[in-house]
Write a structure and sequence with these properties.
The protein has 494 residues and is an alpha/beta fold. 51% of the residues lie in helices and 11% in strands. It has a six-stranded mixed sheet. Helix 6 packs across helix 7.
Amino acid sequence: MNINLIDLLKQKVSAVVLEGETEHLSEKSQALSSFYPILLSIFKSKPELISNVQNQLNPRLSDIFSANPALKNQFLEQISGTVPTAVIESTLNRSIAPTLGVLEEEAGSSEPNAIVHLIETHWNDVSNALPHWALALLSALGISTASGHSLHQAPETEPYPVVEEKKKTGFLLPLIALIILAALLALIFRACSDKKETEPTTMATQTAASEPAKLQLSTGATGDLTTCQLYSSNASYVDILQQNIKQIFNHNLGCGAETTANYHTEFIDQDAIPSVLKLVKGVPNASLTWIGNQLSVQAANPTDAQQLAAKIQPLVRNMTVTTPAADMAASMPMDNNTAITSGNNNAEKALAEINPENIHALDVATALNLQIINFDTASAQIPDANKAILDQAAGLMKRAPQVKLTVKGHTDAVGNANSNKTLSQKRAQAVVDYLVQQGVDLGGRRIIKKKQEQPVADNATPEGQFKNRRIEIEVLNTETGVVREVNDEGIKQQ
């Protein structure tokens, strides 16, 4: 079947990206129409960019213009018109992933070469759809359209001649002024008369949407969707989200939905919902509640909840992600031996789940931090229970030279401060030495030891002192020498 690839994208992607939107709809549609051929031209010239985009949970315009970031702003200024550039950028960001999905479907493969071949097959349609100003943009990116198009400039036009109208006798001007004044007075009077009638209506509208949009779902023992409920007054967006949920969880029914006017039309950070759902899928006995600026994550296994929350937080920068059950458990007194056993078991499990063919530094650090190294009083000797965990970590680190960590020793406030600092440093050194003994190469500053005084609990109680005497592992940014922030790089799909 002979299809026009650009028309197909306008049909399929615009519906996904724009359905349910009402503001600047025409301008957004025009921006997308201009963006499709530009994006396909870039993909055709740079197949490696296709792979990069495929590996991103939420691909952004900045990924497309990574070769020349300054051009992104120029592009947005050109394409946005009278609409704020941030609004258009958000729309284009949301279009990248579904556009790539259509290309993969039409190509019959997710391989970049297959997608490039598809674009080349339909190159006439793509090149004909390019705005004339896009040619200079692509040229600045080092991309040639090679389709007979050439840079051109609109022909110059003569300025409109200024016709000087002869002044006429102004006997009509006072009459016109009186008519205009009377009309203005009439409008003012009508506005004042209608004010009392409109105010109750406005108030009623504001009161109607008093509840934030809400999403609640849970998974079963195998991580499959078991319950789901949506609350939003935007029926169109609810339908779109329903389709996403059905596709992600392979669930025929989707969610129950309430679309009354009591609920807001939008979720905070709603663009991230599909990516968050992909993370929740497969987590056993988990529940998620998305309401207002709060996102609550729970799981039967508190470690699963904490790990899931850590992956979600970078995606929802305007929301707070909480794990109520884990927070409550952390605040309750626990037998030290039970805490040690539980923490070490969780660490072993987390390390075992790391794919040895795709090791991320953040995953190793997170797993190691689950353990509790319970040093004997005044001792820097690593307990036998923790050696097996460090053996696991060393095995992974030997396979992944890119893994670079900091080892931080923390103390409590009991006893002599200087002695405590010395002891904490010896304990951090003991961890470093053990990893080296297991074959981890220290070349390239792969492991750094630090002494810290950062209590996580009240030093006035034995439980707090126990929690404060700890070893922490973090990811080291070798370029700056500081700990790397947990961002999208820490949640790349395995």
